Amino acid sequence: MNGVFGAGCYNSTLALYSTEISGVLMPFYGPNEGITQIKFSGDGNRLYCGSRRENEIYCFDTRYNGEVLRTFTREVETNQRIEFDIDPSDSVLVTGNTSGHVTLYDFVM
User: Could you tell me the sign of the dihedral formed by the alpha carbons of 76, 90, 68, 106, in that order?
Assistant: First the structure.
């Protein structure tokens, strides 16, 4: 995915862009609140995003029109950023929540 990057905004806009052309390559729809974090899978086929005051981390397919593949539930009752990460093997997603707990999702996609 040379020259392609993802960007999110506090108005809940999330999209892929290219350094080669002007404009949006692929918009993503799902989050209703401001995007606080995005992360690509190791192979670049999935884009994950978390939002403020929203209890899901969205997993989008970057190959097929930005379809939501899966959501991961967490408790987020604040505008503060609650981060998540994915292990190097792309098989575990870990996230915190506003009550101070950590949740691990073991998945193979």
Answer: negative
10-residue mean pLDDT series, the chain (109 residues) = 87 91 90 92 93 93 88 91 92 93 84
Please give the model's pTM, rounded to 2 decimal places. Answer: 0.90
Q: Under a CB-based contact definition with an 8 Å cutoff, are residues 26 and 65 in contact?
A: yes
Residues 30, 28: Cα–Cα separation, whole Å:
7
Amino acid at 55: N
Asked if 37 and 83 touch (Cβ cutoff 8 Å), the reply is: yes
- Could you tell me whether strands 84-86 and 92-96 are parallel, antiparallel, or unpaired per DSSP bridges? antiparallel
DSSP 82: -
